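agent> Task received from the user: take the single chain below, predict its 3D structure, and emit structure tokens. No templates, no multimer pairing.
agent> Plan: (1) validate residues, (2) run structure prediction, (3) serialize to tokens, (4) report one or two observations.
agent> Step 1 OK, no nonstandard residues flagged.
tool_call: predict_structure(input=
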Amino acid sequence: MPKQKETSTKSFVLRVDNDTMEALEKWASDEFRSINGQLQWIIAEALKKSGRVKKKHTSAST
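)
tool_result: status=success, residues=62
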């Protein structure tokens, strides 16, 4: 059996009610993201805000 390549992302099933899904679709569309991309962004922002992951610092050189 061939070995599968390890990826840096994992898949999982998420169940949401219709109203939540419609709101997510609208939000993602407003920001030119896919639903998946929007959920990844929401989760990343929540993790940063809660201090569970380090914020990436960006420096602007002018």
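agent> Step 4: summary for the user.
The first helix runs from residue 18 to 30.
agent> Done.
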